[in-house]
Amino acid sequence: MSDTELEPKLHSYPGSCHCGRVQFEVDSPDNPEIEDCNCSICSKSGYLHLIVPGQRFRLLKGEDELSCYTFNAKVAKHYFCRHCGVKPFYIPRSNPDGVDVNVRCLDIAPANMKIVPFDGQNWEANAASLAHKSKL
Fold first, then answer.
1. Separation of alpha carbons 129 and 132, rounded Å
2. Would you kindly state where each structural domain of the chain is located, as residue ranges?
3. Cα–Cα dist 61/64, whole Å
4. Is 1 exposed, middle or buried (0-12, 13-18, 19+ CB in 10 A)?
5. Does domain 21-118 correspond to CATH entry 2.170.150.70?
6. Where are the alpha helices (DSSP H) in 49-136?
7. pTM for the predicted model, two decimal places
8. pLDDT tens, residue by residue, 35-75
9. Where are the beta strands (DSSP E) in 54-113?
10. Is the dihedral of CA 17, 18, 23, 25 positive or negative?
11. What 3-state DSSP class applies to 63?
12. CB within 8 Å of 2: residues ≥ 6 apart
């Protein structure tokens, strides 16, 4: 079997912030594992995590409309639309070479996604389990 036969078939999913000033596309298989994190920022914002390699994310519109928020270690870059306040994606501390897309900001979510709990309240003990998600 060749490497390409082992690769999952990817589909392009468009998404945006609430007001539409920020638009993007992400390539994902139809059956990704999506993390539902219980840390303070994710639980308060209702974020569902689709982590992909950076090459599978394209910002189509609105780079100038984004504001960036960092906290704690200042490694994660949380991007928000400066108009509507929605956080459609960010660069995660666990995967600085990838992009973490909020599934709730996709126009259509992957058909067979599997939502799994992630214990972000104990991030240091669990972050390594996400490292493979930004690798091709």
1. 7
2. 21-118
3. 9
4. exposed
5. yes
6. 123-126
7. 0.90
8. 999 999 899 999 999 999 999 999 999 999 999 999 888 88
9. 57-61, 66-69, 77-81, 89-91, 98-102
10. positive
11. helix
12. none
